[in-house]
Design brief:
five-stranded antiparallel sheet, single chain, binds thymidine-5'-diphosphate, mainly beta
Length: 133
């Protein structure tokens, strides 16, 4: 079943440090077509403000931390990404905003589709029309 939410990834650790693995269709529940990362963010600036028609995403703060506001038109939630072993799955109908980036934040995003500006819903009222009950 498709659903957004946080997945705790295994930390494989030994005396040399830690390592975390993400495997397509195993740990991340879709085929990964695109990878991007957000870094050198500006204090007090929120990003995102959109949902998608098709794209599913997995967000991991590989350095630092940030918060994510989620809204699937039925439920609003705030998720804190504060370690590299925490992965947040976003379904297409999750309106999302990212904020409170720590200065060292690197937010890694795995996406199920190639970039397509037409796949974005950037207007909140349109989002409610498409996904609201
Ligand atoms: P944008 O969607 O505004 O970022 P955010 O969701 O964090 O607010 O993306 C910033 C710019 O990067 C915008 O010009 C679109 C471009 N972009 C791509 O070209 N390819 C991509 O995969 C992504 C995510 C963005």
């Amino acid at each position: 079943m498709r659903s957004s939410g946080v997945i705790e990834l295994k930390e494989l650790g030994d005396e040399r440090g830690l390592l975390t693995v993400i495997e397509e269709k195993k740990t991340v529940p879709f085929e990964v077509k695109r990878i991007f990362y957000i870094f050198k963010t500006v204090p007090d600036v929120r990003r995102g403000f959109h949902a998608h028609y098709k794209t599913r995403q997995a967000l991991i703060c590989v350095s630092g931390s940030c918060k994510v506001h989620l809204d699937n038109s039925k439920r609003k939630e705030e998720v804190i990404l504060d370690k590299p072993s925490k992965m947040l799955i976003l379904e297409p109908n999750d309106w999302h905003e990212m904020y409170e980036f720590s200065p060292d934040c690197v937010l890694l995003v795995l996406a199920s589709h190639l970039y397509d500006a037409e796949d974005y819903i950037r207007d909140y009222n349109e989002f409610l029309e498409v996904y609201g009950s």
